[in-house]
Amino acid sequence: MGKSPPANPLVLKVLLAECCDYHKAYPDQPPNLIMTEKRGFLAELIHRRVPQIVGLYSAGTWMAIEIAEWASEKLARIENEKGNKTSEQ
């Protein structure tokens, strides 16, 4: 097989930034495109902070729904009060 092209230094810097934990643990190893660490699915999700992000989106969505519900009840009450005042006159 042919020789692979020389590595681009910019690509190596980006790869090094992406796998800095691995590089800190094994500083004598060059950064690779393929991570040599094998992780389980759940461990990989936790490493990528997926539970935290899902929690933040869930809390934000819940808050938006609560505010919308509160505002719609408030507006309905105001509309009811306006309707009662006009019928009295």
Which terms summarize this structure?
mainly alpha, 89 residues, 4 helices, single chain, 2 domains
Written account of the structure:
With 89 residues, the chain is mainly alpha-helical. The protein folds into two domains: 1-37, no CATH class; 38-89. 70% of the residues lie in helices and 0% in strands. It is built from four helices and no strands. It has helices at residues 9-18, 20-25, 41-47, 50-88. The chain is rod-shaped, with a radius of gyration of 28 Å.
Question: What's this model, at a glance?
Answer:
The protein has helices at 9-18, 20-25, 41-47, 50-88.
Task: Tell me the radius of gyration.
Answer: 28 Å
Number of strands: 0
Structural class: mainly alpha
Order of helices and strands: HHHH
Content of β-strand: under 5%
Major β-sheet annotation: none
Q: What are the low-pLDDT stretches, counting only 5+ consecutive residues below 50?
A: none
Mean pLDDT: 76
Number of helices: 4
Number of domains: 2
Q: Whole-Å distance between the termini? A: 94 Å
The geometry reads as rod-shaped
Report helical residue fraction. Answer: 55-70%
SSE topology:
Elements: H1 9-18, H2 20-25, H3 41-47, H4 50-88
